[in-house]
Request: fold
Amino acid sequence: MVAVPSGQVTLSDRRTQSSWPVEVAPFRMSAFPVTQSWYASVTGRRPSSAHGERLPVEGVSWWDAVQFCNALSRGEGLRPAYHLCADAETVEWDTSADGYRLPTEAEWEHACRAGTVGPRYGRLDEVAWYQGNSDGRIHSVGGKRPNAWGLYDMLGNVWDWCWDVYDAEVYGAYRVLRGGGWADEHWSCRASVRRRSHPTFRIDDVGFRIARSTPLPRL
Reply:
């Protein structure tokens, strides 16, 4: 897990032509997307269509991702971040929990940028697997240059599920995806690009990475 410092990020949405600033508290994020071996060790399942221990797990829904977070938390003796009600298709985030969780959209973009202000934290071919260089397939994590904070594959390879609802009034329960994937054109692999999908959606270019809140100092 990589320590991500506090900061401010400005999120934007091309569809509505709107932008809004968000303050981000310090937190920790996994240096890589969750791999197939990691996912299998926690859940006992291997849902991916391509197979490889260090390949990002894919073919996982948003629900699969939050369930993984809770299972990993319980396995390490931490308090799960999520209260799940699958029948009602609702999830409550206990922000006081010390367990693993999905990053918020603002946390994701702040971590991806790592202090940079451009569309990417480096030259695309050096930092990401995308349509132009992936040879039509997913790749093992860590094969491209990390950003300045030591986070790999923030762009390309697989899209990352985030905690946030995209736009409840228009898209209901659809959740945010960030980062672009191995099959995407270059314009999708940018720090600001937002994608949305239903939380039950599964496909071979969508995975996730995990985060943990940094405990507040004791007074």
Remarks:
- Residues 62-75 form the longest helix (14 residues).
- The chain has a mean pLDDT of 95.
- Residues 38 and 93 are 23 Å apart (CA to CA).
- Helices lie at 36-43, 62-75, 105-113, 124-127, 168-171.
